[in-house]
Structures are given as C-alpha cells and as structure tokens.
Design brief:
Elements lengths: L1 H4 L10 H20 L3 H24 L9 H13 L10
C-alpha cells in the first residue's frame, strides 16, 4: 500500500498531527477547486488516465509476443504498467 511506503520527515508514517493537518489541507483545497469550478476538469483528466491505463493493460493481455507458458512476461509487463502509474504492488523479491 502506498501509505506504508511513504516517508514523512524520515519516519515511515506520518505522526497523527501531521496526518490530520494534511487531511485538513486536502479538504480545504478540494473545497477551493470545487468553488472555482475546476473539479469537472480534474475528474475528466483522472477518467482519461484511468482509461489509458486500462487500454494498456488490455493490450498487454492481448500481446501474443509475450507467450511464455506461465505468463511471467505478461505479469511483469502488467506490474510495470501499474507501477509506472503510481499503482504499485507489494510484490516480494523484486
């Protein structure tokens, strides 16, 4: 999970006060961009990126050049796609 990988001032997790402050800043920022009428554009950008990631994953699944019997090549390419889009995994040994 991304939260477990985050470092906050050299510590593996945020302190409670810092986490609550970050949450408050995020809520304030969201309220501001909603009021400014920007949320629709942000939702469109997020949706567009999600579609691109899904299309890339589907292309990987349909890629016949990645044809090892255990599908390790496809799995590796899927994981690289996810990680390059900040959707990393907690796979071991890599």
């Amino acid at each position: 999970m991304l939260e477990e990988k985050m470092m906050w001032q050299g510590e593996p997790r945020m302190q409670v006060r810092d986490a609550l402050t970050a949450l408050s800043i995020g809520e304030t920022f969201l309220a501001y961009i909603r009021q400014a009428g920007i949320m629709k554009d942000i939702y469109a950008a997020v949706g567009s990126k999600a579609i691109r990631v899904l299309e890339e994953l589907l292309c990987t699944l349909d890629d016949e050049t990645l044809d090892d019997p255990e599908c390790y090549q496809k799995i590796e390419k899927i994981l690289r796609t996810l990680e390059s889009n900040w959707l990393g995994s907690q796979r071991h040994g890599c």
